[in-house]
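Is this the right way to post structure tokens for a design question? Let me know if I should format differently. Anyway, here goes:
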């Protein structure tokens, strides 16, 4: 079969589906994407409410400029020079409750410039110079390696050069294994200074999180290669969708898939709304992992590993998010764009999760999010009980709406304490729950990023590109590796396209770096 005649049906116009579709189109395949929503992006999305835009995903893009291997990946699909990015001087501000630094300021500033961050921390706590310098040095080491490791051509490299490259990545792996044992709490215990100790304890609002989660983006922030794309998530997704259609791909919006039709253990077609059947040579699902295996395929192609994933014995689901957003007639000049701070009265959710701190994101650096002189403000709350909101909406819609309204008002009461007068300035209010995520994207239990990273960071992912016993089927999305997010989405898309090419005996090619070749 000639490669130009190989037909691939793709489920889902999220980032993975769009990227995989583009790579396959570049390599001569005929592809079509079937998307349940009316817009592209999946979880990478924004939506309008009145004159305001609410963003449900992006805080930064790893690889916005040279300095990250992801720059090479995105550049295969988009002309990054034509996209405006905003680089923050401070990643986040963390307000601690009790301890104040020597200047009387109770807020820790996580500067994105590593030199500035080191000088700031040394000035605060010279007694912790050894720990501080080690922390910065390790992030600097991460900067010497491209992520993802671009080793595609290593088999063609002479053996001496190949061994040198492999030894470098072995050094990288050893560093990762070492850093994987460090969390923000174990890091905090290394400090003598009480202000730094408390600041690191609260970096993730009291949760214990591996410092790798912070170190990787910090390495890119310092190099100005993790910028926020002006226009937000939907704008980014639309660029990817436009690129895919430019390459000849076709997207069917408002076309939810009902089943993957199989015959003799081979994926043969998609059954979509109105019982329309779309045959293909290959089926690629870039949709939710659980929905694909247990709804589209009725759980027929599973093994012990898959069942352990479903029961969360192998990996834990990533948190679900309650996203409460307000369109505010206020500029918030001089206020931190991303602040975590304690609140006087504990905030309680009907799902059983409680918070003693708020996370506030002010989008006043993106003029597309609100009318001039106004600001979109968002508060994110993380819960492991997204199922509560999903079941409540399903079983008692009036109570669901009532619970949403009350929670929004409770959040606004806490914001009034921090930003006096904000109650009278709110023009728009929105609350996206895990039920919202499930409704628009099918993501299992409203999870926002698939799996939580496990203790063994370097272990291979239990979610592969193929399923046991099913031919001509592939899977790729943010569920392929713990941590999820756009870096995993584009990596999985590119890798599955390479796998399909290899299986079909097609040489995988990509265009020259668009940002280097186009004016």
């Amino acid at each position: 079969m000639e490669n130009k005649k190989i037909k691939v049906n793709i489920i889902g116009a999220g980032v993975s589906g769009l990227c995989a579709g583009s790579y396959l189109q570049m390599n001569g395949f005929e592809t079509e994407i079937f998307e349940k929503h009316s817009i592209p992006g999946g979880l990478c999305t924004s939506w309008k409410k009145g004159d305001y835009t609410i963003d449900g995903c992006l805080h930064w893009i790893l690889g916005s400029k040279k300095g990250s291997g992801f720059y090479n990946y995105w550049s295969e699909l988009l002309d990054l020079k034509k996209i405006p990015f905003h680089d923050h001087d401070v990643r986040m501000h963390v307000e601690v409750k009790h301890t104040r630094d020597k200047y009387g300021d109770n807020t820790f500033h996580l500067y994105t410039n590593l030199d500035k961050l080191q000088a700031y921390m040394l000035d605060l706590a010279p007694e912790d110079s050894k720990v501080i310098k080690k922390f910065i040095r390790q992030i600097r080491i991460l900067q010497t390696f491209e992520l993802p490791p671009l080793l595609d051509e290593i088999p063609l490299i002479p053996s001496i050069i190949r061994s040198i490259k492999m030894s470098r990545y072995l050094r990288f792996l050893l560093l990762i294994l070492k850093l994987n044992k460090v969390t923000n709490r174990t890091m905090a215990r290394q400090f003598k200074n009480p202000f730094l100790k408390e600041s690191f304890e609260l970096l993730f609002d009291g949760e214990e999180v591996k410092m790798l989660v912070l170190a990787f983006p910090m390495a890119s922030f310092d190099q100005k290669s993790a910028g926020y794309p002006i226009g937000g998530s939907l704008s980014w997704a639309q660029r990817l969708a436009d690129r895919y259609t430019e390459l000849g791909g076709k997207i069917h919006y408002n076309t939810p898939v009902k089943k993957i039709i199989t015959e003799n253990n081979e994926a043969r077609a998609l059954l979509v709304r109105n019982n329309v059947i779309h045959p293909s040579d290959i089926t690629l699902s870039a949709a939710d992992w659980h929905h694909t295996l247990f709804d589209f395929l009725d759980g027929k192609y599973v093994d012990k590993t898959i069942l352990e994933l479903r029961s969360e014995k192998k990996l834990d689901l990533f948190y679900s998010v309650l996203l409460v957003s307000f369109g505010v007639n206020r500029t918030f000049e001089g206020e931190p764009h991303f602040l975590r701070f304690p609140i006087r009265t504990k905030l309680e959710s009907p799902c059983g999760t409680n918070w003693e701190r708020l996370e506030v994101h002010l989008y006043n650096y993106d003029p597309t999010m609100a009318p001039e002189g106004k600001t979109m403000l968002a508060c994110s709350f993380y819960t492991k009980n997204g199922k509560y909101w999903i079941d409540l909406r399903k079983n008692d819609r009036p109570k669901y709406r009532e619970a949403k309204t009350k929670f929004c008002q409770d959040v606004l009461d806490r914001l009034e304490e921090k930003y006096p007068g904000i109650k009278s300035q709110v023009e728009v209010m929105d609350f996206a729950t895990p039920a919202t995520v499930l409704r628009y994207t099918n993501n299992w239990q409203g999870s926002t990023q698939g799996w939580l990273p496990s203790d063994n960071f370097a272990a291979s992912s239990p979610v592969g590109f193929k399923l046991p016993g099913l031919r001509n089927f592939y899977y790729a999305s943010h569920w392929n590796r713990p941590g999820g997010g756009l870096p995993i989405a584009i990596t999985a898309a590119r890798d599955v396209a390479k796998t399909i090419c290899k299986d079909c005996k097609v040489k995988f090619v990509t265009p020259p770096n668009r940002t280097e070749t186009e004016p």
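Format looks fine. Someone answered above. Worth noting: The longest strand covers residues 338-348. The radius of gyration is 23 Å.
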